[in-house]
Design goal:
The complex is a heterotrimer of chains A (392), B (223) and C (207). Chain A is mainly alpha-helical and 392 residues long. Chain A has 19 helices and three strands. Chain A starts with a helix and ends with a helix. With 207 residues, chain C is α+β, with helices and mostly antiparallel strands. The chains are: A mainly alpha (392), B alpha/beta (223), C alpha+beta (207).
Chain lengths: 392, 223, 207
């Protein structure tokens, strides 16, 4: 932990230094290598792999973990087209329900975005950064080169045949993304994608300063994590050091002559979209039982403008789960705040349960009644009514 | 990725070899003459093992393999007076997909370790809910098939499939493996199933396909 | 589902034919004691060996803990018993720390145990590869013990959908829990009555 703090301090100092040396440190933006609508010449010996990729995409489309919510789907597609411009028609974007942060692009233009990305970006511009990065890999034919590298002896992972009694080794759809990510781009390719991606999002009208903010946020989230995880989220493992990339992007952002927009153009549409989906996004996050990360994300989301009552509700749930000294008390306060604002009806119920534990049955009963009134079709009515009647 | 290593390690350590074949599961009945059989292909594929050890599906050969498989199956079934219908591969039938997922789970036990509580009785089934397929496709039975045929390219032995990533070394000269199972669409019962880990024939040629198909469907008629 | 992943399962099960101990043995009808709880088991169930390889949601993994009871194979139906879970313990006691399985707390009320099960099963079947939801939390008595029951629904990346039925109670600061999962269509309904009966038969054994 101390090392990270030291590294961060260095990064901050370096950044400050970079700021003053802005003119000297301007990175060159790489250019796209393939034109829009590019159909790669399928070498005879790689056409089978393209077939595999197509089959994988069919599995993604059929997967119960693919988000089919029209508004969200359309929004992301529009964002991709706004940033990809003429390349728009080359892409198919699928939002996958996975609470960790990841996005990936395959050589055939299939882009996957995990819902964990939606809970982590503080603005549309930050999401644009992630999407721009993936589009950049495609435009510079990194994905194509990577795909072709597979022939050179790296197994793709989905089509193992060990010649024994097995036909193929299964790689679950959700984890295939991890496999695709493990076939890592070189550090240079990642840096290039950062820069071209940044340019693409800038050209689409987004705030260049968002490009480094997202990496700083991910660093902070990692620092708050209580258990370091190995996977999923290979995004951070195979990508260059977040601090370094934030540095490069900040230098670039400061080097461009257009002034940083004080407030990005249309914040509200994106914010409203995330708010509309906030419940299930956060339910997924709560289920990860990663308290440090959840706590950090809730702080960010409060700043981002997620509904206050909901933020309190999920913080309370996290505290109840974490159950460290003082957490139950803090949770009680959070539930009190949640129930005084717009929050899911479950806030009343969970508050009631907590009040029961605190030996305040009268107050508990009040909350239980509020729950049943707010949610007359509650499937757990029997349990709640049991406590209402059972408790003195 | 660790999980992928697991299966390779486990299978190699255990010493199970390619020559083990699962015998056809006990019959619960025989096929009525003149039955209409719906062929549901899943994953018929022809691949080549490159010099670098990568298993690469071959689209041209795969296409040939699929059409040869269908013709060979049609011929094989016609010998017993049955007719074959097929499903357009591009049509997505969500109800059918649900049953395919269930079938995967059913076959997992059926081809694997039999549940001792059954005392040898065979009652693998998809349940009567599958009968909607009768009307939808005009069939009495459904025949689910999967078959992978892989060969070493250019006569070369592949050195190691998984070498670089997993440190596992082995020689793969190719294999032909697959499964087939026949479902009575009235009851959903699986009337026959076969898992092949050492196949014969060559789906790239009609004659070879006949060999493969007769091997794969051996025992299906029952009676 | 990818038929290949089913065959991965076949591979494992063919493999286990090589094993010295059978992966599944018949569970005779009658009383079965699991930790501090006695169940009355119907005829027709099988119990998994304490440690086996199996394919779950398309992934090969080692299964420990339990016990696990099944009639038609764990991919189709199973009762997972989580006995004697103590304060601070996860349901899956052998899970690695990095997986961040949530812990049971002895003062948990049933709604928190529901959340515990949802989170646990999501991780068992694979985060990003499974969706687990619950409903119908209701009181249920197990002899003199005041416990609870609730329903589950699961969607997974590489397999059929599942429905579930959970029953449990907390006694002497320990959680006793049983989870029945059955594939949809057909299998959940097929074994629901038997599974529900077995779960309902759970009784705390004497001191």
């Amino acid at each position: 932990m101390a090392d990270t703090v030291r590294a961060m301090t260095c990064a901050v100092i370096c950044c400050a230094a970079l700021h003053t040396l802005a003119a000297a440190a301007v990175p060159t933006i790489p250019k796209p290598v393939i034109p829009p609508g590019y159909q790669p010449q399928h070498e005879r010996d790689e056409r089978g792999l393209w077939l595999e990729l197509d089959e994988y995409e069919k599995a993604v489309i059929a997967s119960p973990l693919r988000i089919r919510e029209a508004a969200l789907d359309d929004y992301i597609k529009n964002l991709v087209c706004r940033i990809g411009k003429d390349y728009c028609g080359d892409f198919r974007v699928y939002v996958m329900r996975n609470p960790y942060f990841n996005a990936s692009m395959a050589a055939n233009g299939m882009m996957l975005v995990w819902t964990g990305a939606l809970t982590r970006v503080g603005s549309e511009d930050e999401l644009a950064t992630v999407i721009g990065h993936e589009i950049a890999h495609y435009e510079m034919a990194h994905t194509l080169a990577q795909f072709r590298n597979i022939k050179k002896g790296m197994a793709i992972g989905s089509i193992f045949d060990i010649g024994l009694a097995v036909i193929g080794v299964p790689i679950p759809v959700g984890q295939m993304t991890a496999v695709l990510n493990v076939l890592a781009f070189s550090r240079e390719e990642e840096e290039q994608a950062d820069l071209l991606g940044a340019q693409l999002m800038l050209d689409a009208g987004f705030d260049p300063h968002a490009t480094y903010r997202i990496w700083r946020d991910l660093i902070q989230e990692d620092q708050r994590a209580e258990t370091k995880r190995e996977e999923p989220g290979l995004f951070t493992k195979t990508h260059p050091d977040s601090a370094a990339r934030a540095q490069v992007l900040e230098a670039w952002a400061h080097s461009i002559s257009r002034p940083a927009a004080a407030e990005p153009a249309d914040h509200e549409t994106f914010r409203a979209l995330i708010a509309a989906n906030y419940s299930w996004l956060m339910e997924d996050q709560i289920k990860t039982a990663r308290y440090g990360r959840t706590e950090y994300l809730l702080e960010q989301q409060a700043q981002f403008g997620m509904p206050e009552g909901f933020v309190h509700f999920y913080r309370a749930q996290m505290l109840m789960q974490r159950a460290e000294a003082g957490d139950a008390q803090a949770a009680r306060a959070e539930y009190a705040l949640a129930t005084n604002a717009a929050a899911p009806p479950e806030a009343f119920r969970n508050y009631g349960y907590l009040l029961l534990k605190d030996n305040d049955p009268a107050a508990a009963r009040v909350q239980f009644q509020r729950y049943l009134t707010a949610k007359p079709d509650a499937t757990d009515r029997a349990m709640v009514e049991f406590y209402i009647s059972e408790v003195p | 990725m660790r999980r992928v290593v697991g299966i390779c390690v486990v299978l190699l350590v255990c010493g199970c070899t390619t020559s083990k074949q699962v015998t056809p599961v006990a019959r619960s009945g025989s096929i009525a003459a003149g039955a209409q059989i719906l062929l549901i292909q899943s994953d018929i594929k022809f691949s080549v093992i490159t010099a670098g050890g990568v298993l690469e599906p071959q689209p041209d050969w795969t296409e040939k393999a699929r059409s040869n498989f269908v013709s060979a199956t049609r011929r094989e079934l016609a010998k017993h007076g049955h007719s074959l219908t097929t499903i357009d591969a591009n049509v997505v039938d969500e109800d059918l997909a649900q049953y395919q997922k269930l079938l995967g789970a059913v076959l997992g036990t059926m081809f694997g370790y039999p549940m001792p509580s059954k005392h040898g009785a065979f009652d693998s089934t998809l349940g009567p809910g599958v009968s909607f397929l009768k009307d939808r496709y005009g069939a009495d039975y459904a025949l689910f098939v999967s078959y992978h045929d892989s060969r070493a390219s250019g006569g070369q032995q592949a050195k190691a499939i998984i070498a670089g990533m997993f440190g596992l070394y082995g020689v793969n000269t190719g294999s032909q493996s697959g499964f087939a199972s026949l479902i009575d669409l009235t009851t959903g019962d699986i009337v026959w199933g076969r898992l092949v880990s050492l196949g014969t024939g060559d789906l790239r040629e009609p004659g070879g396909a006949d060999t493969t198909v007769s091997m794969l469907f051996e025992g299906m008629e029952g009676g | 589902m990818n038929i290949r992943s089913m065959l991965g399962c076949c591979a494992v099960l063919l493999l286990t034919g090589c094993a010295t101990t059978p992966p599944y043995t018949e569970l005779p009808a009658g009383p079965v004691t699991v930790g501090s709880v006695r169940f009355d088991v119907d005829a027709g169930w099988n119990v998994a060996a304490p440690k086996i390889w199996l394919v779950s949601n398309g992934v090969l993994r080692v299964q420990e803990g339990g016990p696990y009871w099944t009639r038609d194979g764990q991919q189709l139906d199973q009762i997972i018993v989580y006995p004697d879970i103590r304060d601070g313990e996860a349901l899956e006691k052998k899970a690695p720390k990095q997986a961040a399985y949530p812990a049971f707390r002895a003062n948990m009320l049933p709604n928190e145990i529901v959340a515990l099960v949802e989170s646990t099963l999501t991780k068992v079947f694979g985060e990003g590869d499974a969706l687990v939801t619950s409903s119908g939390l209701r009181p249920q008595k197990f002899g003199d013990q005041k416990g609870f029951a609730f329903d589950l629904a699961l969607s997974v990346s590489n397999g059929p959908d599942y429905k579930g039925l959970v029953g449990g109670f907390v006694a002497d600061g320990k959680l006793q829990l049983a989870v029945y999962l059955g594939a949809v269509p057909y299998y959940f309904d097929l074994h629901r009555e038997s599974a529900a009966r077995i779960i309902a038969s759970a009784r705390l054994t004497g001191p």
